[in-house]
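>> Question from a student workshop board

For tomorrow's exercise we were told to take the sequence and the ligand below, predict the bound structure, and bring the output to class. My setup keeps failing. Could a helper post the expected result so I can at least see what it should look like? The ligand is iron/sulfur cluster.
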Amino acid sequence: MRLWIEAPGEDLGKEIYDVAGIFYPQIEVTASPAESELRVRYRETGGEGLLELDGLLSARLTVSVTQTDGPILDRRLRKRRLKMAFYRLLKEHLGVQPPWGALTGIRPTRLVYEKLSEGLTLDLALLRVGEEYDVTPRKVSLMGRVVTVQRNLAQPSEDETDLYIGIPFCESRCRYCSFISAQVGKGTLLQPYVEALKREIRAVTGLVTEKGLKPRAFYMGGGTPTALSAEQLDQVLEAAEPLLCACRETTVEAGRPDSVTRERLSVLKKHGIGRISINPQTIHDATLETIGRRHTHQQTQEAYELARTMGFDRINMDLIAGLPGETPAMFAQTLDWVKACAPESLTVHTLCVKRSSDMHRWQDSLPVAAAVEEMVSMGLDCALSLGMNPYYLYRQKHMAGNLENVGYAMPGRECLYNVDTMEDTLSVLAMGAGGISKRVTGNREMVYRAPNVKEIGQYIQRVDEMSGRKAGLWDT
Ligand code: SF4
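>> Workshop helper replied:
Here is what the output should look like for this input. Compare the format with yours to find the bug.
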């Protein structure tokens, strides 16, 4: 749907765009009113705002613009009123109830925590968020479960830090991928990348010592860390050993089953990696082929069995609900297989069709929103039947059915790194191309970020500059 927006200020225009995105997932903003299908104009005069729509929908309504004590609060209230007015109008016109109501943020639980910090009980905080944003009872209940689990986890302290190493390589590119990940190809970039990474790891180790930081959780993601050879993986983990051995939790994503070998898993074992992720996404080979995964279900099965026989007892599996051509019945078959494997944690993603990925070309074969919602709900039932609880959740734009991604885990098997990252509760020192370090301070009220460059060649050349950026976070 092509949308044209006229509003006084980028932030108000963004509210309009975000709300329209709830109802029209494949939205595109156009600069030309003549080329648009829906035109939205918002202007303010005196104490009143006027919202006008034409095209797909014609409407005109006033929005109250209350003056308060300060310009920041004023602006926030105006945005919220405009957002809710536009949301209600589209909801009424289209006759649909979005599962997350008017919520457009990535981390819905943040709102619950805000209410808790105002002194509300959890029940009351959930009730308020549900009412204020028109969130369905099912999603309110999900937030309640997540926050309950999170509050019982070991809480981070300000002198701790998480550690992240990114390996932005994959054997081939999945069609739905929107991450920065280069294909391994002939592998000529791998060793220079590993050398740069080792240099950055040494700098971070020095920083951790100098600032007296305590490593908490280590996470190696990507890309696919196991796209490195066993020797290269060994070199990286060897360099990180002083950090690793101080962490209370260590994770390496062995995401693509075709990259899981006995040699690589032996390296992970040797370095005491406790948690790995082997990601089926689906058990259906035809779907795997469509989405460009370049592995079969048989390979996933073998990778999982190999990891189990080698003693890995914290295995996560990622699934995607809403893949092209898939039905709830097919998703149920995938879940039945997951149940038989009984991993310690499970992450159910909802397919996200970003323009930066190749998937928007499969638009016509994507399951409808109601079918995706059914799959997501089956994912929850499956996790509960395995004794897991939801422990983190996040949302993205352009998600099928406007749903969410949820991480489930058996009690005591939650990944602290995931929670810290999603809730922005702890600093992270991120190494590798595209990694974003952050320092969380001031009773979690201030977050400073220092990104590494994304392009691999640039990262290799400028790795010392990246280390300096990170150190700068602790100079403030
Ligand atoms: S394995 Fe992950 S990072 Fe690699 S191409 Fe597929 S989706 Fe992207």
